[in-house]
Design a protein that fits this description.
- The protein is an alpha/beta fold.
- It folds into two domains: about 15-25 and about 95-220, HAD superfamily/HAD-like (Rossmann fold), CATH 3.40.50.1000; about 30-90.
- The chain has helices spanning about 30-40, 50-60, 75-90, 100-110, 120-130, 155-165, 180-185, 215-220, and strands at about 15-20, 115, 140, 170-175, 190-195, 210.
- A six-stranded parallel sheet has the order 3-2-1-4-5-6.
- Strand 2, helix 5 and strand 3 form a beta-alpha-beta unit.
- Residues about 1-10 have low confidence and may be disordered.
């Protein structure tokens, strides 16, 4: 699989948007952090928010690496499974759709193709969206089970472009984290970053635009040069 390159600049508006899920559409990054922190606390390690942000949201690595010198692989896997179960239970009870997301999706639904490219597992993703009401807006959702290398590697976005027949020259990605923006940029895609409280201190220098709020997205799309 080769890395796509941006095409020539034209005056076209984007014809497709690839949305990140966690932290962009739904407020689940905090839920994931709390589930991870609880499991590590039970094992005697107090996970700080800054450690979670650095490992998970900036580098795309497992926070369980922080205790790899204290526990063997079997013990760490048991903690990971317990965290995944607790997180699944939490999102099954319902997730918070981020402010302005529904209105933005409604404004864009008839104007362009929209899909989701997420690092979530399929079972977690389906559990959180049973009650979100967001899925009718999207043509597809690509989850972690469908590619090998996670963001910030470009594979998730390259897979989406290839599988769904998208023109990378007319695609725009919407991300909230540094690793997500780096993944999109490495795939040759333009990316609009909308940081949240957990990710706002990330390095978004490779993003095409950085917005304060998703409500600004429809107008911002008109300023993207393709």
């Amino acid at each position: 699989m080769t890395i796509a390159q941006p095409g020539l600049i034209t005056s076209m508006r984007p014809s497709a948007i690839l949305w990140d899920n966690d932290g962009v559409l739904v407020d689940t990054e905090v839920v994931y952090f709390e589930a991870t922190r609880a499991v590590l606390a039970a094992a005697g390690y107090e996970l700080a928010e800054r450690e979670f942000v650095e490992m998970s949201l900036r580098l795309g690595r497992s926070t369980f690496e922080l205790v790899s010198d204290r526990f063997d692989a079997e013990e760490i896997e048991a903690m990971r499974l317990r965290r995944n179960r607790d997180y699944h239970d939490a999102v099954t009870r319902g997730v918070r759709v981020n402010p302005g997301v529904r209105e933005c999706l409604e404004a864009l639904r008839d104007q362009m193709r929209m899909g989701i490219v997420t690092g979530s597992r399929r079972d977690h993703f389906e559990a959180m969206h049973r009650t979100s009401g967001l899925m009718p807006y999207f043509e597809f959702a690509l989850t972690h089970d469908e590619y090998e290398r996670s963001k910030p590697h470009p594979e998730p976005y390259l897979t989406a472009v290839e599988r769904y027949g998208l023109d990378p020259r007319s695609c725009v990605v919407v991300e909230d984290s540094e690793r997500g923006v780096r993944s999109a940029a490495a795939a040759g895609l333009r990316c609009i970053a909308i940081p949240n409280a957990l990710t706002r201190n990330g390095d978004f220098s490779v993003a095409t635009l950085v917005l304060d709020d998703v409500s600004a997205l429809p107008a911002a799309l008109d300023s993207i040069e393709l």
